[in-house]
Write a structure and sequence with these properties.
By secondary structure, the chain is of the alpha/beta class. The chain is built from 9 helices and 9 strands. Helices cover about 35% and strands about 20% of the residues.
Amino acid sequence: MKAYNNNNKLSENHNQQVWDQLSSMDCEWSRPVSSEIINAAREGEWEVRLTHDPLPEGWLDNVVGMKILCLASAGGQQAPILAAAGAEVTVFDISENQLDKDRLVAKRDHLNLEIVQGDMRDLSMFENESFDCIFHPISNLYIPDVQPVWNECFRVLKAGGKLLSSFYNPILFVADRNPEYLQQGVIKPRYKIPFSDLTDIDEEALQAKKEKNEALTFGHSLSQLIGGQLESGFLIKGFHESFAPVPRFLIEKYMPGFLATWSVKL
């Protein structure tokens, strides 16, 4: 248990630093939305995304008056749009620099946002049944164990509330990452699922990731990603697959790299 906790803390501290740095480098998920987008949301024209695709119809339509938790979802994008569309929004993230993007948009466009820094596995600052909806875009690949996230989401959602979440297709973690195989058009399986940078790649590769300030990642199984939600008490109401607009891995040319679920607390 001690080694597991040490790994948890190692990944948490490292990935927090990575995202603080990425946030200052104009990465895709750290570009605050414009005032034009906020003004359109105020007029009822808006969209937020769990993956690169628009949300499927019916997943999140009218948000006026809803209490929404944007979980591990800072960056000045989803939370401000939902607030402008009429929701009461709390944005929660481990990276203060990412949260600063939401503060920027809230101040610029006069939005009410509750902004909280913390680990997605620990929502103890929120009371039971606090939210109508949790919006949780791709982020759980940065933690070793995803079950605490599902358990906490279930606890803080009201009865009838929805959890909208997305994650990497586990297949993305299976192949050998040797760039020569990519150039040859070869997919060579090497890693089993669940996958962990902390235990499955060699020490030299792990050290290289740390030195280059790359995030430590974890490939969870479908049992953990979807079965874990069921174990927490959720029912799955919707499922969506999404192709990456620009494939990073060869397998993404043949199957969707992103998965999303709409789960309900009955």
